[in-house]
């Protein structure tokens, strides 16, 4: 899978972000994207082939694997990375709209098209809310699909066509557990960063409005 598009997107977003936003980009790129490409993808690469049950009943092993792993961890993680990065496109498109508008009118319409104010501030806040919401949704989805943030060594399966309750073994559970905890920790860190940036921008906006109103009263 090529991650060039996501890498370019994060690089573009970094130009229009606040200091906290740049930390978020660094966390997503270094501690999520690179870890996924360099290590995590290989750990889950053969998870189906390495899932073994103590019975050779045709179909039993496949049914049990599908029951305990309805969606691959690594594919869900990849989808999460793409989804939480996509709202940043709103900011990129808004900046591009401002710049194209200035070119079309052939005059300076904004003090700085990339400055986070006015309509761009609203777009930026919406992107932060969407990113935070998507992070929470995926964490809840992980928890519901796998009955918690854990990977057991042994699971018991009694689903047809298995003739009775069989023991199935998951390969490298400790290694997978470490990366699962890492996934949850980085997701929580990104949520904290998004909420911090959201609070910072709202606080800055209200301070700016208050100072402007105060100056108008003095005048």
From TrEMBL:
<dbReference type="InterPro" id="IPR013092">
    <property type="entry name" value="Connexin_N"/>
</dbReference>
<keyword id="KW-0303">Gap junction</keyword>
<dbReference type="InterPro" id="IPR038359">
    <property type="entry name" value="Connexin_N_sf"/>
</dbReference>
<protein>
    <recommendedName>
        <fullName>Gap junction protein</fullName>
    </recommendedName>
</protein>
<dbReference type="InterPro" id="IPR000500">
    <property type="entry name" value="Connexin"/>
</dbReference>
<feature type="transmembrane region" description="Helical">
    <location>
        <begin position="21"/>
        <end position="39"/>
    </location>
</feature>
<feature type="domain" description="Connexin N-terminal">
    <location>
        <begin position="42"/>
        <end position="75"/>
    </location>
</feature>
<comment type="function">
    <text>One gap junction consists of a cluster of closely packed pairs of transmembrane channels, the connexons, through which materials of low MW diffuse from one cell to a neighboring cell.</text>
</comment>
<comment type="similarity">
    <text>Belongs to the connexin family.</text>
</comment>
<feature type="domain" description="Connexin cysteine-rich">
    <location>
        <begin position="134"/>
        <end position="201"/>
    </location>
</feature>
<keyword id="KW-0472">Membrane</keyword>
<comment type="subunit">
    <text>A connexon is composed of a hexamer of connexins.</text>
</comment>
<dbReference type="Pfam" id="PF00029">
    <property type="entry name" value="Connexin"/>
</dbReference>
<feature type="transmembrane region" description="Helical">
    <location>
        <begin position="77"/>
        <end position="97"/>
    </location>
</feature>
<keyword id="KW-1003">Cell membrane</keyword>
<dbReference type="InterPro" id="IPR019570">
    <property type="entry name" value="Connexin_CCC"/>
</dbReference>
<feature type="transmembrane region" description="Helical">
    <location>
        <begin position="178"/>
        <end position="203"/>
    </location>
</feature>
<keyword id="KW-0965">Cell junction</keyword>
<dbReference type="GO" id="GO:0005243">
    <property type="term" value="F:gap junction channel activity"/>
</dbReference>
<dbReference type="InterPro" id="IPR017990">
    <property type="entry name" value="Connexin_CS"/>
</dbReference>
<dbReference type="GO" id="GO:0005922">
    <property type="term" value="C:connexin complex"/>
</dbReference>
<dbReference type="GO" id="GO:0007267">
    <property type="term" value="P:cell-cell signaling"/>
</dbReference>
<keyword id="KW-1133">Transmembrane helix</keyword>
<keyword id="KW-0812">Transmembrane</keyword>
<feature type="transmembrane region" description="Helical">
    <location>
        <begin position="118"/>
        <end position="143"/>
    </location>
</feature>
